[in-house]
Write a sequence for this structure.
């Protein structure tokens, strides 16, 4: 947990530092685990790429959140969290600080989203004291995944606010983001193949219902010690 906390702190420090560079609109932190998921080095590592544009996939999510907020005056992810906590069938782990779910209409079998309970748009603003709670939670859900699917290849991506300190003439662009966006981690196991249908449509065929995946991941708790 100590080590994991230091890794998360490094993510934050790199994020904060790169956001000082106003040419950088977005900083993507991600991990490729296993050759199938694109890992090119044998030892475990995370990668970071800062881009001079907000990537399209991120922008679509940001704009959807803004649209939801304009209509409902609530954060989309806070709404998802409340609904998932009430329903319970897709919860993998919940504690006082974080919740991980297998999202409704998951794109991939055993896909998970880890979200802070408390609304926060930017991972760089997570207080130092929270990082340890996140390390405990994140480590636990990754161990469950490793146990249930026998160390599968996976990717995870950190979705956080783009750089809002960009040049003044664009400052208005994300001015409501503090209220309408909610940072999260998307954990994407690579147990099925993305093929022609997915590339051609942007639709994903997921043979494992998220409720079944969540059940397996919850049950992994008893065997945690043996991991
Ligand atoms: Zn929220
Ligand atoms: Zn996302």
């Amino acid at each position: 947990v100590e080590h994991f906390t230091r890794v998360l702190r490094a993510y934050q420090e790199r994020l904060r530092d790169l956001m000082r560079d106003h040419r950088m609109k977005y900083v993507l932190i991600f991990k490729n685990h296993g050759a199938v998921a694109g890992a090119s080095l044998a030892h475990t590592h995370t990668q970071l790429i800062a881009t001079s544009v907000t990537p399209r996939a991120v922008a679509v999510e940001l704009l959807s959140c803004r649209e939801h907020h304009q209509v409902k005056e609530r954060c989309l992810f806070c709404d998802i969290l409340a609904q998932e906590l009430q329903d319970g069938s897709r919860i993998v782990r919940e504690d006082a600080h974080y919740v991980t779910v297998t999202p409704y209409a998951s794109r991939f079998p055993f896909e998970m989203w880890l979200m802070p309970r408390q609304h926060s748009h930017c991972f760089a603003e997570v207080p130092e004291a929270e990082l340890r709670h996140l390390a405990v939670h994140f480590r636990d859900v990754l161990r469950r995944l490793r146990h249930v699917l026998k160390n599968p290849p996976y990717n995870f991506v950190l979705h956080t606010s783009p750089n809002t300190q960009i040049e003044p003439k664009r400052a208005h662009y994300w001015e409501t983001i503090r209220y309408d966006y909610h940072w999260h981690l998307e954990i994407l196991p690579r147990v099925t193949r993305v093929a022609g249908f997915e590339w051609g449509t942007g639709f994903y065929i997921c043979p494992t219902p998220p409720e079944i995946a969540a059940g397996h991941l919850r049950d992994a708790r008893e065997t945690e010690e043996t991991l």
The pocket of zinc ion (ligand 2) is lined by residues 61, 159, 184, 186 (CB under 6 Å). The mean pLDDT is 92. The chain has seven helices and seven strands.
